[in-house]
User: Which sequence fits this backbone?
């Protein structure tokens, strides 16, 4: 389930550039675990999202999450923001991810390798430094859940996280 939340969070960050063209989402974002609500899913220790490309034609990101037991997982995605599904690479098996939006509302669709699915609506604060992802999904056993993930911008521009990649 933590991979599901991480994937959704990553998608959320990726989807915002089109709606807020004046401010790129490229850069580093940290999950605000204190302000986030993970529903029935375990609360991760931390998560970092690095958006490496943010143009109207292409979005690319990497996400690292540390689970409650200290295990680090990685996810990455690259594709257009047109709603089409593209491969989501992640620790433990690949899935699919797609993002679309207009008029400031973005929708993320995710299919995980374990059978779980999510849809998320993403909003960004007026100052561009906080993103909030409202998630509805089904875990691998088909149980529905909701979650809210809050992301805080750490730095602008293209940055590279100092994490081991897949």
Assistant:
């Amino acid at each position: 389930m933590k991979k599901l939340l991480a994937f959704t969070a990553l998608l959320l960050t990726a989807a915002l550039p089109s709606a807020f063209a004046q401010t790129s989402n490229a850069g580093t974002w940290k999950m605000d675990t204190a302000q986030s609500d993970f529903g029935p899913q375990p609360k991760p220790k931390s998560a970092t999202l690095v958006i490496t490309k943010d143009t109207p034609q292409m979005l690319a990101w990497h996400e690292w999450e540390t689970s409650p037991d200290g295990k680090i997982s990685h996810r990455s995605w690259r594709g257009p923001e047109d709603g089409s599904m593209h491969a989501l690479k992640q620790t433990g098996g690949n899935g699919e991810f797609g993002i679309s939006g207009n008029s400031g509302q973005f929708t993320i669709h995710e299919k995980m390798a374990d059978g779980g699915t999510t849809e998320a609506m993403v909003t960004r604060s007026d100052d561009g430094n906080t993103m909030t992802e409202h998630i509805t999904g089904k875990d691998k056993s088909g149980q529905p859940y909701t979650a809210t993930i809050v992301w805080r911008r750490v730095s602008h521009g293209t940055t590279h996280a100092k994490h081991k990649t897949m």
About this structure: The helical segments are 2-19.
